[in-house]
Amino acid sequence: MDVKRSLGTADYAVFSIVLGVSAAIGIFHSYSDFRNWKKNGGDQYFTGGGKLHMIPVGFSLSVSFMSAITVLGTPVEVYRFGVMYSWLIVALLIVTVVVTEVFIPTFYSMGIKSTYEYLEKRFNRATRILGTLCYIAQTALYLGLVVYGPSLALSEVTDLGLWVSVLVTGFVCIFYTTLGGIKAVIWTDVFQALIMLSGFMALVIRGSQKLGGYGEVWRICKEGNRTDLFDFNPDPRYRNTVWTLLIGGAFMWMGLYGVNQAQVQRYLGCKSLKQAKGAVVLNWFGLLLILSLNVIIGCIMYAYYVTCDPISAKLVNRRDQLLPYWTLELFGDSPGFTGFIMSAIFAGSLSTVSTGINSMACVTIEDLIKPFTKWEKKTYDYLSYVIVFLYGLVTIFLAYLSSNFGGLITAAYSVLGIISGPVLGVFMLGLFFPFANSIGAILGLFGGMGVGIWIQFGKKFYPKSPVFYDQKPFSIAECIQAANITVPALSAVNASSSAISADVVRPAIADWYDISYLYHNVYACLGTIVLGLIISLLTGGWKTRKDVESKYLYFCCDHGFCSCVPGKIRKMCRCGAEVDDVDDVSKARYNVQSSAGDGQTKKEEVNAAFEYKESEGETKM
Predict the structure, then answer these.
(1) Which of 82, 304, 510, 546 could make an SS bond with 462 (beta carbons 3.0 to 4.6 A apart)?
(2) Average pLDDT over residues 81-89
């Protein structure tokens, strides 16, 4: 059953078209924006001049952080553990509501380019710089995984070496992102989203046809115990349960769509607050489609290999190679189709990397360079090109380091848990707790990262107990018959696929390290908040809570849905913070819009919206 082979001429032609169109989009937007360069400069390069429409932004949001990891990892996750993974879609729906009601109005009303500018206004500059450095580290590590994943898949089915594929992925991204800026990133994402969705549909249609229809696929999955959707076990040590996916998934999504620069940067580039919210809603529908197709693909893969699991039979070297291996079996006799599916994987990597390096360049300029320099606008504009290019090179280097990680999904979520969770915790401290101060925020951030690192190192010393390693059973019966392997070999395979022996003595602390990978974010975030609040209270945060400006805080009790709550209770929820004109602040936060052609920039409108506060001496700049 060895299907490893080189791609044909038609397959390479498809690759060339995908790469050519991506590069052409970058060239087009580079030429288009050059005519307005003196007028818009960096605003055009990083935020599209505040004129982005919600439809392409929604497409871009959908494919940027759920692309290459989803294409390679999610089908295998469903293949091994069943359809419980679908609950992540519900978690994202909850987060979509929170993001559109809390985070977007707050950031949009401030007229900022970098998310971390909020941290300086709410705390101090040191907090802003620390948040920026954490974001750069998190994104760079994540992009290394994203480049490495599809390159690994390509090396499994083509005669291109692994690192040749890495270089191709990296330099194509560098080319069109450097030339076209955020507009090139967004419109290339739209094109790549269409490629990805078309590739998924081709796999679903061809795979289900070979198995006799999706009804037969579901029957096989049900017999293989892959269709359970309602495991409400509250134990956080089990990998995928309803609570694990809802709670852990919500914190993960919140870190990505609530405070992550790559996403917020595109919200802030929309024409209006309404358009920004619409983009996030469209993003949910896009991810609903993408994740649903990936879950279906995982089910079809299991039904296809129900009697011959390539992972257990060692027909693939790594779990992440299963999808391209299956693709060759489905389309090996159809010129061009294998290349098309591989292009879908490749497109996923391109969309994520281009978004990441553009956003890292933006925060570098806005948070690490501009506050300490007073150069001409043109200098910052040209420097943006250079920094995007350099971050592209860094991503390629980190892809090499990513080869030492395990499964792509687990590795990606582990990186996000160590850094993303604590950063989310700092933003939540700033928004929801008026008595949180800069000392608590900074030390809380370090404490949260310490929790994440502690869990990761603990997992290395005490791997997961077999009791909680809930991988579903597999069979290699037909693999043995085809390869004429003796029965003892089957026993060896089954034994090797088992987790740790139950006879191994494990200390009590090992149970802490058994928690699901999705809870890494949760514990790191909560650790940041709890430690940050304690330190803030110990360092005078309660005394200075009234000095915090209303526009940097968010109180759930002041939302329109809570209008029936008595005033005394609402005042208690604000922890004594000075919020005299709640209705006016809400109006300024939620109704600030940027209208085209009125000659007023977004930031000018925001300042006008808060002018009434400054005239009364109620704001402290």
Answers:
(1) 510
(2) 92
